[in-house]
Amino acid sequence: MPALSRGGLTTGSLLSASCGTAIASVCAVGLFEIERLLGGVWSVAAVLTAGVCCFGLARACGRLTEVVPSGAGPLAFAARGLGRRTGLILVLPYLLLTLFLAGAEALIVGVLFSRVVPVPPGIGAVLFLVGTWGLCRAGVRVSYRVQALATWALVAGLCVVSILALADAMGRGELTERLLPPPPDAARFAAGVGQALFLFMGFELITSQAEIAAGPACVRWALGGSVVVLAGFYATVSLGFSCLDVTPDASGEMVPQLAVAGQAGGLAALLLVAVLSLLASFTSFNGALLALSRLTAALASQGILPRSLSRVEPRSLAPRPALALLLVLALGATALVGLGGAMRPAILAAAVSAAVVYAVLVWVRERSPFLEVDRGIVRRLASTLLAGCFVVLATGVFLDAGPALAGTLALLGTAFGAAILAAFRSRRRTSLPTRPAELQEEVVRVR
Amino acid sequence: MTALVEATKRFVARYHTQTGLVAEQRGWNCMIVLVAADSEQRVTVRLEDGRVAEVHDGEAPADLVVCADQQTLEDVLELRRGPNEPYLFGELTVRGEEAHFVRLDYITESLCPR
Q1: Distance from CA of B36 to the nearest CA of A (A)
Q2: Which residue of B has its CA nearest to A68?
Q3: Which residue of A has its CA nearest to B89?
Q4: ipTM, 2 decimals?
Q5: B32-68: per-residue pLDDT in tens?
Q6: B3-111: which CATH topology?
Q7: Which 3-state string (H, E, C) describes chain A?
Q8: Domain boundaries along the sequence of chain A
Q9: What pTM, to 2 d.p., does this model score?
Q10: A11-427 placed in CATH 3.30.470.20
Q11: So where are chain B's domains?
């Protein structure tokens, strides 16, 4: 392979991008759900178990990226391993459901916004979506340095306030009581692990950065490293949540990270965490919008979506019609999550679709063109087992969905229905267009 | 002259006939290498100020590397297929700065008949 004239992204940049994509404000809500489901060290055990599964996934993704270093990431891997249509049907729902997560994220940002400036949360949510969309439309991309700064500041800030909350509980002599609730049964624990998978969701999307990375090894190291960092971060914050005096739901607060910041560090910590969370949400949504708009435009250029969505603005090279569609969908998702009470179904549906995609990625890693000829049977069996674990975890989420089951199934049904429709419309364009006569025998003149 | 070089030169000729499209790329300087993964064929394309200044056989240090099997590369260069289709499904990969491959994608899609 020819050498590039400029070095690409290093492991450090990819690591922060991976963690930054996974850590969104909505993760705090997911973490708090796990806390209510399991509590104390059992929540930590669920996070770490999900982390172990994701570490296996990270190794598989490292191999996938080495063989197919594609910006299309999971879609390209699944398509190469299982065929185009199957790949679309299995991966597209995961990408579609990130829009519903964007709706959940926007609402949380609205609440965060209302803590910093005096605007109603609904207005804050719309401002967040429209503002981020406007910057993407102008072709503005948040630099990796800003992304890294926002990510590490948020990680450090939340870890510090969580440790302070732990120290506070210890000082009151409540630590053992807080951290050692009764053990959950196996099904409940599996449901907790399934939800914990949601916290890692997005870390694997740096496989899409393989094109601009310094090399495949950088992506491989960043994938594994980000799982370790995320597991440590979520475990620490989970312990902090265990020591909260007030539950976010009881106080009408939908942003648990503010509750733990307020309890541990007062108003200053609360404001700091609010600002850092806003920054993290912005960088996360900015990246998601840019990536999804290019995918939308690419699908439209294939006739899978209306072709008008494939237009690109020549100066900024931003796919503006696709961005406009995504804004409308994100606003709709925000309304559905906010007014339709679909916050929990959105999180659960995202967790299920993530588990399905993870199972697919681990599975295709053991198929052509990714399988090495000398790959041992033990490793192949381990991969099969891991893929099976992801399927079981997806099932566990369903089993413990409770009143959110109908909403979760409706969201998944919509996402998979759209994916099946897209797969049906996809077709390989093999027809040879007539070549313009004047170009048939044209002599190439350079300059 | 290899088949890939010929296909590239035909693609360049089509690009240069689109004066509006070329004008939009003013200020773009880039060295692109096309790699046929299933053969030894390599092509280097040098762009200066949005126009192709040189096309030659073989490889050189590049700003952008595009890799696919030879048939896919020729199909894209001959405008039989858009680049997005093989890209989405992992049959065509690129390496280099995002700004370069987004621009190359724009040019190729603009030339590709609907």
Answers
A1: 10
A2: B90
A3: A76
A4: 0.87
A5: 999 999 998 999 999 999 999 999 999 888 999 999 9
A6: Nonspecific Lipid-transfer Protein; Chain A (3.30.1050)
A7: CCCECCCCECHHHHHHHHHHHHCCHHHHHHHHHHHHHCCHHHHHHHHHHHHHHHHHHHHHHHHHHHHCCCCCCHHHHHHHHHCHHHHHHHHHHHHHHHHHHHHHHHHHHHHHHHHHCCCCHHHHHHHHHHHHHHHHHCCCCCCHHHHHHHHHHHHHHHHHHHHHHHHHHHHCCCHHHHHCCCCCCHHHHHHHHHHHHHHHCCHHHHHHHHHHECCHHHHHHHHHHHHHHHHHHHHHHHHHHHCCCCCCCCCCCCCHHHHHHHHHHHHHHHHHHHHHHHHHHHHHHHHHHHHHHHHHHHHHHCCCCCHHHHCCCCCCCCCHHHHHHHHHHHHHHHHHHHHCCCHHHHHHHHHHHHHHHHHHHHHHCCCCCCCCCCCCHHHHHHHHHHHHHHHHHHHHHHHCCHHHHHHHHHHHHHHHHHHHHHHHHCCCCCCCCCCCHHHHCCCCCCC
A8: 11-427
A9: 0.84
A10: no
A11: 3-111
